[in-house]
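Reviewers of the previous submission asked for a worked example of the structure-prediction workflow described in the proposal, so we include one complete record here. The input consisted solely of the amino acid sequence. No template or homolog information was supplied to the procedure at any stage.
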Amino acid sequence: MKPVRIFRHIECEGPGYLAEFLDHRKIPWELVAIDRGESVPADIDEVSGLVFMGGPMSVNDDLPWVHAEQELIRKAAAAHMPVLGHCLGGQMIAKALGATIGPNNVKEIGWHEVVRIDSPASQDWLAPLPRRFDAFHWHGETFSLPPGAWPLLRSEHCCNQGFVVDNMLGLQFHVEMTADMVREWAGLYAAEISEPSGSVQSAAQMIDNLDNHAAALNEVAKKLYERWLQPIVNPDKHPR
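From that input alone, the workflow returned the following structure tokens.
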């Protein structure tokens, strides 16, 4: 099986639970560390899927690797290759497919509930999940829906929390989080949460009951990742 290629944009926002999930299922994967100056491979021939992680930068920044990743996503879309994006990664997919990225009405940071949007795609992708669940968020920008996309999820503070186009899943929230990652971000980005509000939690709020929150989110991630992997592990049932 060809590996899944994961793009990391800042060291603290790595694949997290996704790496554990892939390792447990013996799915090979490789990391492209943009934060270490590694370049974006120009082709997709040697991989079975692409994954884009988060980061504090904007998809609208005029950075060579941002443009290169979007071009790669368009190649994957033409090949019907599975692509997965988390937060910045979801925005990257959306923009590559023709959507716009701009400021959300408020910053959304911490544990906040997301709610399913009923559609044929959500019945397929979200069937094993509860209609409402808590997810971890850390974003100030968000995406519109690209042409042909089905909306999947929304939250009180952000109307677009997830979409699917063909074999491409874009998420605004961070489904990959582990408890250790939450603790790390709460410390590294302390200045951004120094004035809590209805949409921004304090570090104490994020860490309260953290192990249970993280375990529940891992279960959500597992179901989403299992669905996303179907064209990779069962290509005969999901032809490109």
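The beta strands are 4-8, 29-33, 49-52, 83-86, 101-116, 132-143, 150-155, 158-165, 168-171. We consider this example representative of the routine output the project will generate in years two and three.
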